[in-house]
């Protein structure tokens, strides 16, 4: 289908063969190139923030000595991981709407006009990234907590004998010990650099934010299923899959090279 001017009533065998024309159109259509740019910006932002936040939270939580508080926090931040994006999107639409709780608080404190977070192109990417990190950072935090728990206590004892403060112990003991896991997660995340999260964006975006919120997956959905450009939509999806495969191979090799991580 990606190499055809596909018509459902003609089928694959009856549709006209057009070679690479569909792939050339990807870079000729402004909407398609903008969707690729939006995907890269949103995905890279999610990867960067999604790595930093779990690391910071894991370090902060590891410093808490009260096990009851620690376990309660772990449970609370991990719960959103089990919610579907349909559920989260419904909550966000209510909370971030013009009559939602956030705007109610902001207007009462600052007296400003309500902000349409999900309808403002300048705010939509920020909203998508923050909501994704809120939903998923609990899982990463637990991974890093397990890494911290596996650090040899004698390292901290030696640092304490040398007069290191807690901040210095974190800097010179905790972070270096976490580095292999950070490298593994960071490099493997490269494979998702063209995956900005269809479920999330599809349930949150609207025509007002297409300029900054339309990603490859949502563009393929509209092009193929809504506009009937099945061949072109398939070509865009195939283009994304090909690039993603290359990135996965590269990220796997980087993880093996720098962290000695391998699956087979």
Automatic annotation (TrEMBL):
<feature type="transmembrane region" description="Helical">
    <location>
        <begin position="35"/>
        <end position="61"/>
    </location>
</feature>
<keyword id="KW-1133">Transmembrane helix</keyword>
<feature type="domain" description="ABC transmembrane type-1">
    <location>
        <begin position="36"/>
        <end position="251"/>
    </location>
</feature>
<feature type="transmembrane region" description="Helical">
    <location>
        <begin position="172"/>
        <end position="194"/>
    </location>
</feature>
<keyword id="KW-0472">Membrane</keyword>
<dbReference type="GO" id="GO:0005886">
    <property type="term" value="C:plasma membrane"/>
</dbReference>
<protein>
    <submittedName>
        <fullName>LplB protein</fullName>
    </submittedName>
</protein>
<dbReference type="InterPro" id="IPR050809">
    <property type="entry name" value="UgpAE/MalFG_permease"/>
</dbReference>
<feature type="transmembrane region" description="Helical">
    <location>
        <begin position="82"/>
        <end position="106"/>
    </location>
</feature>
<dbReference type="Pfam" id="PF00528">
    <property type="entry name" value="BPD_transp_1"/>
</dbReference>
<keyword id="KW-1003">Cell membrane</keyword>
<keyword id="KW-0813">Transport</keyword>
<comment type="similarity">
    <text>Belongs to the binding-protein-dependent transport system permease family.</text>
</comment>
<feature type="transmembrane region" description="Helical">
    <location>
        <begin position="230"/>
        <end position="255"/>
    </location>
</feature>
<dbReference type="InterPro" id="IPR035906">
    <property type="entry name" value="MetI-like_sf"/>
</dbReference>
<keyword id="KW-0812">Transmembrane</keyword>
<dbReference type="InterPro" id="IPR000515">
    <property type="entry name" value="MetI-like"/>
</dbReference>
<dbReference type="GO" id="GO:0055085">
    <property type="term" value="P:transmembrane transport"/>
</dbReference>
<feature type="transmembrane region" description="Helical">
    <location>
        <begin position="126"/>
        <end position="151"/>
    </location>
</feature>
């Amino acid at each position: 289908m990606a190499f055809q001017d596909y018509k459902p009533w003609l089928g694959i065998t009856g549709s006209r063969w057009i070679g690479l024309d569909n792939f050339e159109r990807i870079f000729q259509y402004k909407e398609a190139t903008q969707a690729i740019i939006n995907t890269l910006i949103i995905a890279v932002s999610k990867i960067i923030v999604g790595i930093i936040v779990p690391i910071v939270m894991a370090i902060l939580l590891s410093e808490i000595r009260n096990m009851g508080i620690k376990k309660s926090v772990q449970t609370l931040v991990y719960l959103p991981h089990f919610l579907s994006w349909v559920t989260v999107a419904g909550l966000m639409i209510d909370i971030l709407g013009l009559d939602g709780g956030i705007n109610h608080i902001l207007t009462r404190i600052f007296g400003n006009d309500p902000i349409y977070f999900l309808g403002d192109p300048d705010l939509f990417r920020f909203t998508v990234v923050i909501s994704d990190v809120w939903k998923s950072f609990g899982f990463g935090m637990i991974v890093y907590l397990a890494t911290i728990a596996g650090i040899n206590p004698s390292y901290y004892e030696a640092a304490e004998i040398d007069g290191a403060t807690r901040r210095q112990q974190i800097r010179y003991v905790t972070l270096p010990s976490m580095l292999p896991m950070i490298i593994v997660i960071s490099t493997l995340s490269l494979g998702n650099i063209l995956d900005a999260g269809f479920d999330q964006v599809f349930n949150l975006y609207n025509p007002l934010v297409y300029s900054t919120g339309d990603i490859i997956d949502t563009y393929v959905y509209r092009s193929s299923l809504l506009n009937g450009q099945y061949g072109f939509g398939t070509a865009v999806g195939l283009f994304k899959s090909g690039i993603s495969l290359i990135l996965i191979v590269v990220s796997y090799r980087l993880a093996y090279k720098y962290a000695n991580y391998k699956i087979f």
